[in-house]
Amino acid sequence: MSDTVKFTIDEQAVEAKKGEKLLWAALKNDIYIPHLCAIKEEKRPNASCRLCFVEIEGIPNPVTSCTMNVEEGIVVKTRSPQVDRLLKTAFELLISDHNLKCSQCPANRKCALQKIAKERGLKLRQKRFKTITRDYEIDDSPDEFAFDRSRCVLCGQCVWADREKAKVGAIGFTKRGINRVVTTFEEVPLAESICTQCMLCVEACPVGALYYK
Amino acid sequence: MTKEGLQKLYEKLKDDANNIIKKAESKPRVLVGTATCGVAAGALKIRDNFLQEIKSKSLDVDVVEVGCMGHCYAEPLAVIDKPGYPPVCYGYLDDGLVHRLVEDFLGGDDPSYEYALAALERNDVFPTFEDFPRGVYEQKLILENCGFIDARSIESYISRDGYSALVKALNESPEWVLDEIKKANLRGRGGAGFPAGIKWEACIKAGGNEKYVICNADEGDPGAFMDRSVLESDPHLVIEGMILCAFAIGAEKGYLYIRAEYPRAVSHVEDAIRQARDKGLLGSSILGSGFSFDLEVFQGSGAFVCGEATALVNSMEGKMGMPESRPPRLASHGYRGKPTVLNNVKTFAYVPMIISRGADWFKEIGTAESPGTAVFSLVGKVNNTGLVEVPMGTTLRQLIYDVGDGLPNNREFKAVQIGGPSGGCLPEKSLDVPIDFDSLHDAGAIMGSGGLVVMDQDDCMVSVSRYFLEFTQHESCGKCTFCRIGTKHLLDILTDITKGEGDSDTLQRLEELAEDVRDGSLCNLGKTAPNPILTTLRYFRDEYKAHIEEGRCPALVCRDLILYFIEPPKCSKLCNVCVGSCPTEAIFTREDGLKEIDQEKCVKCDNCLKACPTEYNAVVKLSPPVLPPEKEKKTK
Fold first, then answer.
1. Which are the contacts of B205, defined by CB distance < 8 A and separation ≥ 6?
2. Which residues of A lie inside 8 Å of B (Cβ-Cβ)?
3. Rounded average pLDDT over A40-63
4. Do A176 and B513 touch (CB under 8 A)?
5. Is the separation of the CB atoms in B603 and B563 below 8 Å?
6. Which of B369, B424, B427, B433 could make an SS bond with B539 (beta carbons 3.0 to 4.6 A apart)?
7. Both A38 and A124 in a single domain?
8. B337 touches chain A (CB under 8 A)
9. Are residue A48 and residue A100 in the same domain, yes or no?
């Protein structure tokens, strides 16, 4: 039994290992699918950012490619009117709750949101929804980096790096709904927490929420 | 153990139970309905009153607490079961009535039929509940014992053939149990209607030795209380159903996930588990059969999202109560990563009767695709609020007008909200939709867990959607983008509309976002959260338009779009009731003696409208909030 499967993405023939998730198979073959929360090493996908929608022939509605296993012979489309509509809405929802002063942001030009906008022809501003204003304070207590939650997209990359790579567990999600945030235990500044300032979380942040000073 | 041995063991259990019950029933008894609905209406005080009155007259009468009979509109309720008379149910009890019943009926021989609601057994003197118009439509399966047996006594359950289904199953085989459930086409009563048999089979096929059975009693919809009532009133029914499921799939351990806000349900179930263990019906080698299964209660801390299966399991494992993407499904990867069956309270409650009476009997009831009954908590603007059970296929009209006895004061029906925050609002023209999983889905609503709220012309559909969105937005766990931020914007847009704000694009923007949240969310909380909006937009779009285009709330509900006005020709001048009722001193007496409201000071609390004597009815609400022009001139 062969452990590779063959299928097509946007009419391009692709091979991938059995059991691999569609998102990673596509990215490996230089086919871009927008994503923020996906972590390759994580067995159970987070599936929370809701950006990596694709269409698979035979499945009526778009599905998230981070949760779909590759299968022999599937026909995948990364673009369709439905996929584009969902992506546009998800993207606009995210930036309605995101500090959009890009020129002042350390992640300017290397930000994952900018990349999605560029790849899919979306604008980095939206008028559909009211802007959600936050009065978060910047935590600049660590020596070499700072955390600005007004830029955080809650993708969970930093939390995963902190727990699974650094094995520290200084940060995590707390509160629910629209108040969900990444923070330390008892919400103390990072320098007062058990954070070792290894900065793996800064490396993991796809936007400019965690950044070098 | 042999079949005969098992049967013998059960016969002994039943004989013991019958003896105890017979002895109890040989004395006059007062059964007070003390489920949470009864307690809220003051049933504990009524119970104490009975005890006191009975003691003061030195009568030999037992006072027993029972669960909910479903007639919540008449709470507090009690049944008096005196040998020589049919058991009679009395409603709307108060101290005086208790005194009179004890003196005249228990102490004397006058059953005081003028205060009775109904008899519980057929007799020549007084009608029974079945003789009510609703009796024609009601068919009680899982509510059969509710309110009639002492929920805290396993004997009262066993004496009504309780646990006989378990004995029957133990004498057959797990495969036979699964087969019956599959043949019966029992569909999950949690709302989605997924066939229980297929779920169980998937769990069996997942293999492995360690499996779990979980009962989802995290009932969280505002206005829904079916699961609570069943657990409070007949806990052994659910427990027996869970044991049968465990037997079918080969599980040794099960949990009842009950929200901590249901303390009575928790304590009744915990008592029931203890009693079942004592009788050898739970624990190792049940009734000597070699099959072992035990149960435990897990108290959820009341997050709505924990009713979602994966979030529920996460919460049990000590993680944050947040949903996961599926697959893998719980049937293969559930509690502690092991194959797990998770069903609703009512789903398990059907299992014993299907096993006892057979799949064919069950399929006779209801419709072909949705066999069995549907249990609803009927609330809102309807005469007979309470718990009702009707066969699937009954129409909404029959349920509201015949079972629920229509709307009070001949008010005009406007909409019925089915399925709680995940459900939808259906208008008058949908009233002939039969109640079953598929028909309701096609109409835009869902069966949900069974909350049913009736609304009349005084209910504003925009406000209703806003209410439900406020609930789901508050209960969103915040994990995925669509639900976290999408429901927030949906709520914001709805709030704007209730203030009359918006433009020609607002409704389209609302509808598109609602559709995207439905299609894009991770779990069913987010996927179904827009249903109230989508259905009200589908059936009551004009009402939304009136808010935006005319600044008018047709139901006179949205505060920013109404004002209170005292009609001068109707005002009596001499009466000062409205002035006294106003908490902000907004009402003053003009020079001509008429009362007037200072709109600047008015907080629209509705007090003056309620206070104005009915012979005048001078206070009116106006929408849009514009004073009649000629009156405006006068006030200047």
1. none
2. 44-51, 53, 61-62, 64, 67, 82, 85-86, 89-90, 93-94, 96-97, 128-130, 132, 154, 173, 175-180
3. 94
4. no
5. no
6. B427
7. yes
8. no
9. yes
Tokens standing for residue B567: 């009609």
Taking the CA atoms of B339, B344, B349 and B350 in sequence, report the sign of the dihedral they define.
Answer: negative
Domain identity same for A119 and A207:
no
ipTM value greater than 0.90: yes
Question: How far is B35 from B319, CA to CA, in rounded Å?
Answer: 32
Cα–Cα dist B135/B138, whole Å: 5
User: What total number of domains does chain A contain?
Assistant: 2
Distance between CA B251 and CA B259 in Å, rounded?
23
Q: Where does the pLDDT of residue B630 fall: very low under 50, low under 70, confident under 90, or very high at 90 and above?
A: low
Both A1 and A78 in a single domain?
Answer: yes
Tokens representing B84 are 């020589």
A182 and A108 in a single domain? The answer is no
Domain boundary among A109, A133, A157: A133
Bridge partners (DSSP) of residue B258 are B217, B299
Domain shared by A106 and A151, yes or no: no
Which residue matches tokens 């005196």?
B82
Please tell me the predicted confidence (pLDDT) of residue A16: 94
Q: For residue A181, give the H/E element and its range.
A: strand A181-184
Between A and B, how many residue pairs show a Cβ–Cβ distance under 8 A?
90
Task: Identify the pLDDT of residue A1.
Answer: 56
CATH number listed for the domain at residues B461-550? 1.20.1440.230
| Whether residue A212 is found in the same domain as residue A162 | yes
Measuring CA to CA, how many Å separate B30 from each of B24, B121, B150, B353?
11, 16, 11, 28
Burial class (CB in 10 A: 0-12, 13-18, 19+), B398: buried
* pLDDT tens profile B398-432: 999 999 999 998 899 999 999 888 889 999 999 99
| A-chain residue closest to B482, CA distance | A90
Q: How do A171-174 and B116-119 pair as beta strands? A: unpaired
CATH architecture of the region B3-130: 3-Layer(aba) Sandwich (3.40)
Q: Cβ of B484 and A90 within 8 Å?
A: no
pLDDT band at B135 (very low <50, low <70, confident <90, very high): confident
Is domain B373-456 annotated with CATH 3.90.1150.10?
no
What does the alpha-carbon distance between residue A36 and residue A54 come to, in Å, rounded to a whole number? Answer: 15
Which residue intervals of chain A are DSSP H helices?
22-28, 81-96, 112-120, 157-160, 200-204
d(CA A164, CA B75): 56
User: Max Cα separation, chain A?
Assistant: 57
Chain B residues 516-535 with CB within 8 Å of chain A: 516, 519-522
Q: Do B485 and A47 touch (CB under 8 A)?
A: no
The full set of domain ranges for chain B reads 3-130, 154-363, 373-456, 461-550, 562-635
Say which CATH class B154-363 falls into: alpha beta
Distance in Å from the first CA to the final CA of chain A: 52
Residue to test with chain B: of A21, A36, A133, A176, most B Cβ within 10 A: A176
Segments forming the whole domain that contains residue A63: 1-133
